[in-house]
Specification:
CATH superfamily of the largest domain: Endonuclease Chain A
CATH class of the largest domain: Alpha Beta
Radius of gyration: 23 Å
CATH architecture of the largest domain: 2-Layer Sandwich
Helix content: 40-55%
Largest sheet: 15 strands, mixed
Strand order of the largest sheet: 4-3-2-7-8-10-1-11-20-18-17-12-14-15-21
Number of helices: 19
CATH topology of the largest domain: Endonuclease, Chain A
Number of domains: 3
Strand content: 15-25%
Distance between the termini: 40 Å
Number of strands: 21
Shape: globular
Structural class: alpha/beta
Length: about 475
């Protein structure tokens, strides 16, 4: 038997074994399983390599018990239980609180405690965010905890690193968590001055686990918590490109600053992530230690906020379920901004059902993409939306905002895109704010963005080049993998 024949037989056996494994590993996601099987059949050797790089082959069980010690505290569980009971009783007795069923879903699904004493600051550009964050870090007294998907070693990254070095030198506790894949251009020695000053820096998963790279399960969250009282989350990482200095440009993004007890909830998520990759021993049962990180926050705010974490370490796609609930609850309007629109069937169907039920639905995506192939997959979903009557806008530059507004009452801002990767593969963090004034503030910003956007008409979209249509449909076959 020739070497070529042996190679073909071995390749076939490997592919058959891999296909059987995929059927079991991806059994809860048949679309994804089918996408991988098609890839492996048509690209026998290359498909195996692609699955090893991007496939669902790593589970989060080893440290799960240790990681959840912080939120398995009896008092926390009791508080959550009481909150569910209160919300259910409120719904039964009053039924005038808008979206109380969404609150209940988020508490039940994600353990997202509802806090009611929050101030919110809407930040519509990296310039706004960086200026406010710089001031708040400068004023930090006790602790600064940061987690970012992307950290750059450019002027912006250097500015914040040096500021953190200064605060660590003053005795403020500084912990920095960054994703190794998202920050793959960052030299490890970049943070050495911070480590020398007493700060702690940790990678969230190196891009290599045992013998293979790990490109999935990335920590896409962006959060900062200062003194346990002020927190930031949203779409803006630490880097010059978020200022629009580079391509694509102009760059439009959304971030959120929170002052109030919701910052305690963001702090919980930070420590869950941090303790997953760190061996630091923190005794949260010690009252003084606990209050240092989770103080009783005095705030003049009145906004109801829930912090929702989602990712492969949760049994349910919490953020995606919250999006679906918002869409299904809508009676008047839905506004969405996302850089990547690669929905699952349920989300696509929910939006079409909403618009056919008389809800005004507006979707805004980039006019200038950052990833061309992914953009073709986004466009492949647009025709169905236009046919249904959904308004679709192309922003004049790159739209990186992750925003959903429902009925002038509820707003979701965070790190999660409307795509399958954010729904199930990456670790994400969103805030859901229940407040009419804040919703109107976001709608006004959305309306200004429309002035800088082009509305796509159905007839115009049909006229796009045949070559583009072919690319869209071919690449759409791989959408369960994106």
């Amino acid at each position: 038997m020739s070497n070529l024949a042996i190679l073909i037989i071995m390749s076939g056996l490997i592919n058959i074994s891999l296909i059987i494994s995929i059927i079991f590993i991806e059994r809860k996601k048949p679309e994804s399983a089918l996408g991988w099987i098609v890839t492996i059949i048509f690209l026998p050797f290359l498909g195996f390599i692609i699955y090893m790089l991007f496939g669902e082959t790593f589970r989060f069980e080893a440290k799960k018990k240790d990681r959840y010690k912080l939120i398995s505290d009896r008092n926390y569980k009791k508080t959550i239980s009481n909150q569910i009971k209160h919300l259910v009783d409120t719904e039964e007795k009053v039924r005038k609180i808008p979206h109380v069923d969404l609150m209940i879903l988020n508490v039940n699904n994600a353990g997202s405690m509802l806090t009611s004493n929050n101030e919110t600051r809407l930040l519509l550009s990296a310039k706004e965010k960086f200026e406010q964050l710089e001031k708040d870090i400068e004023n930090a007294k006790s602790s600064i905890n940061l987690s970012y998907y992307i950290m750059r070693s450019d002027e912006v990254g250097t500015l914040f690193r040096d500021l953190l070095v200064k605060k660590a030198s003053e005795g403020v506790e500084v912990r920095l968590l960054y994703d190794r894949f998202g920050s793959n251009t960052l030299p490890k020695k970049f943070f050495q001055p911070l480590i020398d000053a007493g700060g702690i820096v940790k990678e969230y998963f190196p891009t290599r686990i045992w013998f293979r790279p790990l490109f999935n399960h990335r920590n896409h969250r962006k959060m900062v918590i200062i003194d346990g009282e002020i927190s930031y989350l949203g779409g803006i990482n630490i880097g010059k490109e978020y200022l629009g200095d580079g391509k694509p440009t102009p760059w439009r993004d959304t971030h959120l600053k929170l002052i109030g007890s919701s910052s305690n909830m963001v702090q919980i998520q930070f420590f869950l992530d941090y303790l997953f990759v760190s061996d630091e021993q923190i005794d949260f049962s010690d009252r003084e230690t606990f209050l240092k990180y989770f103080p009783s926050v005095e705030s003049k705010g009145t906004k109801d906020v829930q912090i929702i974490a989602s990712g492969p370490d949760y049994l349910e796609p919490n953020v995606r379920n919250a999006y679906l609930k918002m869409i299904n609850n809508a009676k008047k309007n839905i506004y969405i901004q996302t850089p990547y629109y690669i929905p699952d069937e349920a989300t696509q169907a929910a939006l079409k059902i909403a618009v056919k039920s008389g809800v005004n639905v507006k979707l805004m995506i980039p006019g200038i993409p950052d990833k061309k192939l992914v953009y073709y997959v986004t466009l492949s979903h647009i025709q169905e939306l236009l046919e249904a009557g959904i308004e679709v806008y192309l922003y004049e530059g790159f739209m990186h905002s992750k925003l959903v507004i429902c009925d002038d009452q509820v707003v979701s801002i965070g790190s999660a895109n409307i795509d399958r990767r954010s729904f199930s593969l990456n670790f994400e963090l969103n805030a859901v704010i229940y407040d009419h004034e804040f919703a109107i503030e976001n709608i006004e910003a959305f309306t200004k963005d429309i002035e800088k956007s082009k509305k796509i008409t159905y007839q115009e979209f049909l006229q796009r080049p045949f070559r583009q249509k072919v690319k869209e449909q071919i690449l759409r076959l791989f959408s369960p993998l994106l």
